[in-house]
Amino acid sequence: MEIESISKGDEDIGYNSSNVKKAKLQSTLAALLDDPILTDLPKKPTLSDVDTLISVELGSAMRISVLKLDGTFFDVAVMNSATVKDLKLAIKRKVIEMEQSKMGHRHISWKHVWANFAISYHNQKLLDDNSALHGFGICTNSQVNFAPYIMSKGFGKHSRRRKHRFFHGLNNLG
């Protein structure tokens, strides 16, 4: 019985020391995130966020400014070898982060956004998700913006709906 109580006591001590370590780690992380040098890190950074920002400092990633339709802008960081799809994902993450910090949980239909708007650089719409950004001349400190995206009729969209005239012949009966 004594052996069981000792091992139970050891588990409790180990559990408590684990909680203490987690608390210290969280407080250290919070202090780091409050540092003015790290202001461009999100409040809950992922490993890829930190890795990308380190790459920006080392020159293997680029910071791109995104101009919104309301005239405001924000910055995103992507690797130098990034594609249009990578840029869209970075924009999506940044917008979700900004919206959640301001308004809490809010759902944005990104399918709707990308169906109606395209990213544009020097009046050239970036439509092919697999194209590399450097192919368009986008580099560090470039500015892209949202532009209305109008799909052609033959691109899988339905044409304008015809009016259904169910009662068309009833007016002539009487």
UniProtKB/TrEMBL annotation:
InterPro entries documented for this protein: SNRNP25 (IPR039690), SNRNP25_ubiquitin (IPR040610), Ubiquitin-like_domsf (IPR029071)
Lineage: superkingdom: Eukaryota
Domain SNRNP25 ubiquitin-like: 62-149
Protein's recorded name: SNRNP25 ubiquitin-like domain-containing protein
